[in-house]
Amino acid sequence: MDLNAYLPYFKSMIDRKIGWTISNPEDGIVRVGYPLYDKPMLEFTRKFRASAEYDPHYRKTLKANRIKPRVDEATIAQVLKSDDVSLIGAMISLIVDWEEVEEGTWAQALQSGELYRLTKRLAELTSHRPQLEK
Fold it and tell me: With 0-12 CB in 10 A as exposed, 13-18 as middle and 19+ as buried, what is 10?
């Protein structure tokens, strides 16, 4: 997977508003739906899940490095200090999969620049390796 191809997109999404679906049913209660992700984000997640850097056992990988598997600024900062490709890949894998658990995870990771910084770091560390697909 060419991680560098997504860096301009991720950088452009920092601080950008991401729309959400909203329903206003007859009972008058407004319900927030789900984020409206664009094609590049959906493509990235699909390709990342098929890449050699995706870690389906990301929880185990993070815990083995004494990192609690959660998507927050402190955890991501801790991961970014590492030169361990598997650890950074595990953190991105967590973000990619966590959207199914908590809608808006991708939006937060895009807007905060966390996904940009993690992907950039992983791209730097894997640039010397041949790209292998699973």
Answer: buried
Distance CA 35, CA 33 (A): 7
Q: Do 105 and 132 meet the contact criterion of CB atoms below 8 Å apart?
A: no
**pLDDT surpasses 60 at 25:** yes
Please state, in angstroms and rounded to a whole number, the distance separating the CA atoms of residues 15 and 69. Answer: 24
Whole-angstrom distance, CA of residue 68 vs CA of residue 26: 42
**Whole-number Å distance between alpha carbons of 44 and 54:** 12
Beta-strand relationship, 31-35 and 20-23: antiparallel
DSSP codes, 25-45: -TTS--EEEEE---HHHHHHH
Residue 81 carries which DSSP code?
Answer: T
pTM of the model: 0.87
